[in-house]
Write a structure and sequence with these properties.
This protein is of the alpha/beta class. 41% of the residues lie in helices and 16% in strands. Bound molecules: NADP nicotinamide-adenine-dinucleotide phosphate (NAP).
Length: 312
């Protein structure tokens, strides 16, 4: 049985999801946030240093470990697979083993890139995985390692993540739209753009429900879930929708010409799944949460950028 306000260790507080999670978890318990670089209120921790991770776990003795850190550079992973596996597979394994030994819950994130993109119906949690590249393989290995360690865990597979800060497609499109008259955007990859804040809010809600129900390590709501916004689009569809909205909000002066192109016209070191829409109905039933269409989060995120003004 966990105390009412469990100690939470947050890894990756500077990431898109981690930053949002940092805020959302405050209501659940005291949060020790870690990041690679020194920042106010943050403990510096290089997560490739397994001994340093172990020392922090032993010192802080978290009751909840929220791992929002990952190697997310999908193309670079093909060049430096070892570094990617360290963050995406061996770190979660280490955290899960510690959690199993010390009865701590591990909150962790995975990806739609565990699938090969051949499906044409939303993929549920029971669907077989077949990652196409190093990033997806390493993330799948992280999921399996957590499941095998046997600690209480919530693993949320998400997709196409963006936020009003960090490195993401939405911010890249806004920058390019200010610089160019014409953009070419891939229209043959289909997924569900998901706002980092939605992921963080649902994560915190799920955690709170688990705690309120007695923090039972055998609670059937623990396990792996698909957590994305609803609906689907292509990168071209996402770019068009977000830039139209951005223009309406005054974030860009004029709409560039947005040309649809096939993935073959934009070769990348890593192959991406052509179709990776996740079926998000199970998590909504299990936790009674609502996952709105992708346009909803996009509008809120752009609104936030517009309110933030020229410092963006
Ligand atoms: N981004 C997506 O489109 C996407 C899609 C599906 C699933 N996901 C999953 O969702 C989760 C969150 O992704 P995200 O988009 O929020 O990732 P992100 O913005 O790239 O953030 C990753 C975080 O990991 C930290 N990190 C990486 N290497 C580190 C190291 N050696 N030591 C300490 N910290 C390190 C980063 O620190 P720095 O800020 O110092 O780099 C950053 O805080 C991940 O599990 C990811 O696999 C993401």
């Amino acid at each position: 049985m966990m105390p009412e306000a469990p100690r939470i260790l947050l890894l990756g507080a500077t990431g898109q999801v981690g930053f949002e999670l940092w805020r959302c978890l405050q209501a659940t318990g005291p949060v020790l946030a870690t990041a690679r670089q020194p920042l106010p209120g943050v403990r510096v921790l290089d997560l490739t240093d397994a001994d340093a991770v172990e020392a922090l776990l032993a010192d802080y003795r978290p009751q909840i470990i929220a791992n929002a850190a990952a190697w997310t550079a999908v193309d670079a992973a093909e060049e430096t697979p070892e570094a990617c596996w360290r963050l995406n597979a061996r770190l979660p394994e280490q955290l899960a083993r510690w959690g199993a030994e010390h009865h701590a819950l591990l909150l962790h994130y995975s990806t739609d890139y565990v699938f090969d993109g051949r499906a044409r119906q939303p993929l549920d949690e029971a669907r077989s995985t077949a990652p196409l590249g190093v990033y997806g393989q390493s993330k799948r290995a992280g999921e399996v390692a957590i499941q095998q360690a046997g600690c209480p865990s919530l693993i949320f597979r998400t997709a196409w993540v963006y936020a009003s800060r960090g490195h993401n497609f939405l911010l890249t499109m806004l920058r390019l739209a200010r610089e160019r008259d014409q953009l070419s955007v891939v229209d043959d990859q289909i997924g569900s753009p998901t706002w980092a804040r939605l992921i963080a809010q649902v994560s915190a809600q799920a955690l709170q429900q688990w705690l309120a129900a007695g923090a039972d390590p055998d609670d059937p709501r623990l396990g792996l879930w698909h957590l994305t916004a609803s609906g689907q689009t292509s990168w071209h569809g996402f770019a068009t929708a977000l830039l139209e909205q951005a223009q309406a909000l005054g974030l860009i002066e004029r709409l560039p010409d947005i040309q649809p192109i096939p993935s073959s016209a934009f070769p990348t070191p890593a192959q991406r799944p052509a179709w990776s829409v996740l079926d998000n109905r199970a998590i909504q039933r299990a936790f009674g949460c609502h996952l709105p269409d992708w346009q909803h989060g996009m509008q809120l995120c752009l609104q936030e950028l517009a309110e933030r003004g020229p410092t963006r």
